[in-house]
């Protein structure tokens, strides 16, 4: 009997997303001897967040020695903190070197991924047809869906408007009146770049961030040569940077420890801004680390320039080209740039992934994501989530990516070796794990630092952060323990075809 399902391509594994997490998954699948996989990428090239974000000054806020795969060091970084172009190039070079591209289906956007108990596989619908797989790795990344603020009249703004992640390079800002909404990680990079060009710059700051100095500098060719021919030197640098971030990560467990770090940030404000009124505006009233800690040497000097006006409040309404702040003050603008960040606490992929009951992850979660080890989710057998609930840390994303991939590859290898049909979290263990996570978070600066951050979801729960060290994360994800999961072994019945 020739059914339609036989024409649908079936693979052992499907990876969704072609950023660093998806590329890492593809490399590790090949390394594990699993070659029956495809990677679905919505765009026409790999790159993830580093393809999407091309705003002026876009760069990493983790030193490049740590913001790279541990198994693929790059000795030719031009700076301590690499820029967007270089990082994207590193990603694409790595994809070529590890011969991942033959597995990639470009311009294939995953519209939905549903687990089917009837078919015992993942059913992934794309804009170019349907695919089935035994396992799915959702590697869509958290910095993906831009947040567009719900401001009265914003849609009817009479000038140009765009989000920083979709930068309009065709718009010349020279001599224009520009308004920037938001003062987060993207804004502190692009504002100093555009400030010298524009006529007037109005920066709407709902809540100030703590900003530390950025120890950035060019890496001379002598250092690059040393890294290339004596690779242990770059490994030592990576280890040192990791140690610094791990110390900071440990400090985030305690308000008292972070107040010591805060003194550096306070001094940084004094150095960059002499005007006492502006200084007060940009000084946060919460403990450093409660929100994401930012780094810049140019942010405060840019805000102090005469053509810049910092509005200590939200944008509440737009009328024509007039912007009205929450305190009633008004400003004119020709261009609005939204530096309003991304959906982090509620990842957009959750609206497209459906469990065995046909419910989307976001419907199940109701604003408070929960998973097991940040990697698997209830009622989604054989589905692995990169950057899942409560796995974020104040360190390099690569620490998380590589820890999760070690865990996932071990799961896949054990499943294949033991002829296992499905793996899914045990609801009892998952509930216990999440209780431990929430208890551990109670005393941390993320929960007790006195701010409202994207780490805290709409129900007031921290469903984003891993509360322990990355040492503990790597240890707990170093081996996939089948005993912690519900497994269904494959039973081959000779009578099935009778």
Automatic annotation (TrEMBL):
Gene3D superfamilies: FAD/NAD(P)-binding domain
A Pfam family of this chain: Pyr_redox_3
Entries under PANTHER family matching the protein: FAD_NAD(P)-BINDING DOMAIN-CONTAINING PROTEIN-RELATED, L-ORNITHINE N(5)-MONOOXYGENASE-RELATED
Record protein name field: 4-hydroxyacetophenone monooxygenase
């Amino acid at each position: 009997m020739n059914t339609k399902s036989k024409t649908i391509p079936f693979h052992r594994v499907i990876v969704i997303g072609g950023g660093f997490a998806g590329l890492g998954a593809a490399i590790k699948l090949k390394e594990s001897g699993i070659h029956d996989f495809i990677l679905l990428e919505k765009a026409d090239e790999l790159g993830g967040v580093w393809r999407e974000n091309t705003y002026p000054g876009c760069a990493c806020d983790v030193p490049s020695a740590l913001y790279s795969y541990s198994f693929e060091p790059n000795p030719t970084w031009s700076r301590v903190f690499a820029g967007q172009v270089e990082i994207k190039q590193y990603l694409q070079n790595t994809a070529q070197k590890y011969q991942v591209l033959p597995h990639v289906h470009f311009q294939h956007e995953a519209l939905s991924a549903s687990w089917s108990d009837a078919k015992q596989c993942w059913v992934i619908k794309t804009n170019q047809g349907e695919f089935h797989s035994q396992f799915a790795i959702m590697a869509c990344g958290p910095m993906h869906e831009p947040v567009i603020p719900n401001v009265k009249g914003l849609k009817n703004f009479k000038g140009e408007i765009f989000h920083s992640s979709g930068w309009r390079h065709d718009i010349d800002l020279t001599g224009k009146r520009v308004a920037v909404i938001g003062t987060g990680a993207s804004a502190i990079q692009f504002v100093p770049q555009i400030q010298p060009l524009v006529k007037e710059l109005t920066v709407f700051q709902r809540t100030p961030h703590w900003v530390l100095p950025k120890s950035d500098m060019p890496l001379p060719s002598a250092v690059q040569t040393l890294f290339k021919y004596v690779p242990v030197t770059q490994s030592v640098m990576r280890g040192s940077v990791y140690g610094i971030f791990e110390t900071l990560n440990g400090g985030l467990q305690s308000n008292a420890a972070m107040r010591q770090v805060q003194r550096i940030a306070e001094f940084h404000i004094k150095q960059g801004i002499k005007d006492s009124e502006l200084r007060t505006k940009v000084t946060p009233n919460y403990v450093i680390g409660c929100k994401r800690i930012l780094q810049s040497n140019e942010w405060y000097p840019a805000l102090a320039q005469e053509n810049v006006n910092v509005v200590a409040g939200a944008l509440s309404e737009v009328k024509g080209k007039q912007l009205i702040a929450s305190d009633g003050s008004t400003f004119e603008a020709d261009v609005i740039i939204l530096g309003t960040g991304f959906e982090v606490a509620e990842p957009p992929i959750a609206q497209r992934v459906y469990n065995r009951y046909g419910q989307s992850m976001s419907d199940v979660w109701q604003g408070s994501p929960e998973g097991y080890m940040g990697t698997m989710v209830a009622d989604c057998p054989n589905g692995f989530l990169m950057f899942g609930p409560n796995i974020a840390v104040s360190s390099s994303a690569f620490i998380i990516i590589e820890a999760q991939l070690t865990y996932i590859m071990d799961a896949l290898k054990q499943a294949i070796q033991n002829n296992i049909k499905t793996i899914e979290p045990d609801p009892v263990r998952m509930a216990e794990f999440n209780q431990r996570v929430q208890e551990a978070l109670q005393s941390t600066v993320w929960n007790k630092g006195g701010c409202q951050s994207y780490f805290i979801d709409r129900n007031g729960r921290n469903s984003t952060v891993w509360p322990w060290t990355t040492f503990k994360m790597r240890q707990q994800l170093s081996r996939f323990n089948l005993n912690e999961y519900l497994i269904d072994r494959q039973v081959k019945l000779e009578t099935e075809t009778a």
